[in-house]
User: Which sequence fits this backbone?
């Protein structure tokens, strides 16, 4: 739970660009993990970090079940 509250050292713009790059290059790689590793190495983050951003973005756009970022923030504010 500890790392969730820590602000990312990557700006929202960088994260959005990273997520776009993953989507755009998905076809060029054998697996999602391969594309995550490729994009992560360009950005200087880990593939795991990037995977979390992509999953959160998918939840935010309704492509994956789970709380969106704004719902999570609302929940945090209530706690």
Assistant:
């Amino acid at each position: 739970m500890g790392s969730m509250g820590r602000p990312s050292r990557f700006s929202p713009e960088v994260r959005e660009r990273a997520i776009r790059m993953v989507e755009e290059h998905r076809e060029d790689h054998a697996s999602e993990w391969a594309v995550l590793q490729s994009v992560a190495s360009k950005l200087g983050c880990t593939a795991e970090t990037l995977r979390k951003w992509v999953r959160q973005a998918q939840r935010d756009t309704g492509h994956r079940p789970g709380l969106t970022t704004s719902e999570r923030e609302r929940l945090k504010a209530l706690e």
The two ends are 14 Å apart (CA to CA). The chain is about 65% helix and 0% strand.
